[in-house]
Amino acid sequence: MPVRDQPHAKELLPDAVLESPRRVALRDEVDVLVCGGGPAGVGAAWAAARLGARTLLLERWGQLGGVWTAGLLNPFFEATGRGWLGDELVAHLTACGAWRRWKFSHCFDTETLRRELETLLSGAGVELLYQTLVTDAVLEGDRLRGVIIESKAGREAVLAKVVIDATGDGDVAARAGCRYELGRPVDGLVQPLTLMFEVSGVGDWIQPDAPTLFDELTAAAQAAGLDWLPPIERCNYAPWIINTPAPGVADVQLTHVYRVNPLDPAAVTRATVSARRQAAEAVAVLRHLPQFADLRLTHTAAAIGIREARRVVGQYTLSLDDLVAGQRFDDAVTSCAFGVDIHEPAPGAGVPTAHHTAMRPYEIPYRCLLPADVGGLLLAGRLISGTHEAHASYRVTGTCFATGQAAGLAAAWAAAEGTTPDRLDGRAVRQKLQQQGVRLLD
Ligand SMILES: Cc1cc2nc3c(=O)[nH]c(=O)nc-3n(C[C@H](O)[C@H](O)[C@H](O)COP(=O)(O)OP(=O)(O)OC[C@H]3O[C@@H](n4cnc5c(N)ncnc54)[C@H](O)[C@@H]3O)c2cc1C
Questions:
Q1: Which of 257, 272, 300 is a domain's end point?
Q2: pTM for the full model?
Q3: For residue 42, what are the domain limits?
Q4: From CA 346, how far away is CA 383, in angstroms rounded?
């Protein structure tokens, strides 16, 4: 029998479409709702469920991991020695044979991580809902009560005692009316976008550093009579050929597309198309190097990597000064020792950069996870409250996971107490995290 959905009434205006009010079905009501399943969302949902909260994770793609998996990212910075769920994840990947030391860090097998994140989160009781885009916020006064979602099932609502924005880009916070910043103060530009890609045929060759490979590639292209230059300036952050645990397989960080607004889908589409071409061209040049005669481009990432988008204004804004001072906080929820890694947003523009400013291991306070403007909401991952420069350090995945883990614990606690996260004592959140085994700087 054919079925027919009732179209929603709309009026066509000269420059817009006017939607009439409509009743949106309530799909679910949970204790903790995690929006986004990247490193931060994974940490958040896992922690909340582990502590007994009924937890739902919404994700627009059909997998967990965010940039880890859809973005074909490696290595995993700030992964080890963090305590609690971070340690459990590393131990699990090690037991699966999907973890290896790589130069100054560690790498994982992407497919194993993709699968095992589902094993670990489902095992903790997290309910997953894929192929679902969070499109709007449901507010009661200045308290967030839930979100509107869109999927093949249509437009629905999900309510929660506490919502965690782990979308990377701050979609939930923005829709809820939180203030946010985008890009560096001088011109609003964000770090360039990179489409990671995977190659086979690397053998056990390990790259010494980025400038050496840059020079070798440039020389090889010249010798072959190719009109090609690496799509980056000569620097220490790219190109990198990153060996994975799979023999001969590596993830490559090389493509760069500049001056892209990460919130404009047309700009991100153009960047993706351009970067995919950059990847193919780069592999053609790499094959001119004797060690890469058998190199093969197996695939490019499903999604271009966005390093930086909205940074939501929180109750505290972490700054470069905090990193330089190695700041500690009474309400610390995690720490970070990763340097200030700013891929230059506009090479040649002459804007001074804080890239690799000397810093010391520092802590991140709970207040960076609390939006300044809206209650019932926690922030996790690269969107937390910080400046362009500070973000360039804490954006690495181990630290994003750790902020997620902290948000998950706080959300579960607030939900159980029938309160909102901003009413919790941040020093007590710190203590509870330490009781779970989280290691801070002291
Ligand atoms: C090219 C590149 C290279 C990097 N290199 C490294 C590195 O070598 N090592 C390292 O540790 N870190 C690296 N980083 C940084 C790191 O990958 C990110 O900062 C980190 O993944 C951020 O984690 P997150 O969970 O906050 O966001 P993301 O990883 O971006 O995850 C966000 C998730 O939310 C989902 N989502 C977004 N919007 C919605 C919505 N509206 N509705 C539903 N779901 C939504 C997305 O699909 C995604 O799964 C790199 C980043 C990039 C882009």
A1: 300
A2: 0.98
A3: 26-185+310-436
A4: 22
